[in-house]
Amino acid sequence: SGHVQLPPPQNVTLLSKDFDVILTWTPGEGSPPDVTYTVRYESQERMDKWIKVPHCKNIRSTSCNLTCVLPNFFVKVRARVKAVSGRFQSPWVESQFKEYYLDVELAPPVLNVNVKKNLIHVNASFPLATCVESFSWMYDLNLWEAGSEDKKQYEGIFRKNTVTIDTTALRGNYCLSARSSFQSIDFKRSKFSQPVCVLLNHKG
């Protein structure tokens, strides 16, 4: 009969991770093995207008990346998901609201270290979706001699800028690590990246 409903998705959460905004959920208790999910979202600019997400229609996965479908990074959005199996579907389950600009969580950048004679050139690549590359992402860089607690700090470097460090006076094993930062209403920062260590002015 038409009254058979699928169990609704559980733990429906809109969250930010690694510069992205993602809807996540878990299958409802007793979901059939062939269950798929469909996601829509609405923004506070246009309440009650639920917009389809083409890449999250009848998907098997239990997450949907919404970063680049967001119509506006400065407006709160929420999403909803339903389970589908054959002719049956579950009720929609809605997430809470999130705003990219306020709620984005950052990932550490990946450092590229180029050792030259008496210089190191350091730049950072950020694991960003193309649609958010235009934000003023920055990074902070630490340099220290391996085994020492004394870190030289370079702060507020724009994402695309290279840091050039004079290594004339440095000898031995030096490590570099960086974190992403972003000026929203407060200052957001990622964790520091895994250190990259280089041997400087080694007299072989």
Overview of the molecule:
With 204 residues, the chain is an all-beta fold. 2% of the residues lie in helices and 49% in strands. The chain has 1 helix and 16 strands. It has one helix at 100-103, and strands at 10-17, 20-26, 36-43, 46-52, 63-65, 77-85, 88-89, 93-94, 110-116, 119-125, 138-145, 152-158, 163-166, 172-183, 187-189, 196-200. Strands 3, 4, 6, 7 and 8 form a 5-stranded antiparallel sheet that branches. Strands 11, 12, 14, 15 and 16 form a 5-stranded antiparallel sheet that branches. A hairpin with a 6-residue loop joins β11 and β12 (152-158). The chain is elongated and about 75 Å long. The chain starts with 9 loop residues before the first strand and ends with a strand. The mean pLDDT is 94.
Feature tags:
1 helix; single chain; 49% strand; 204 residues; five-stranded antiparallel beta sheet; mainly beta
Helix content: under 10%
Which class of secondary structure composition applies to the elements? mainly beta
Instruction: Estimate the mean pLDDT confidence.
Output: 94
- Report the end-to-end length measured between terminal Cα atoms: 81 Å
Tell me the overall shape.
Answer: elongated
> Count of helices?
1
Portion of residues in beta strands equals over 45%
Global Rg: 23 Å
Main sheet characteristics: 5 strands, antiparallel
Poorly predicted residue ranges: none
Tell me how many strands there are: 16
| Helix and strand element order | EEEEEEEEHEEEEEEEE
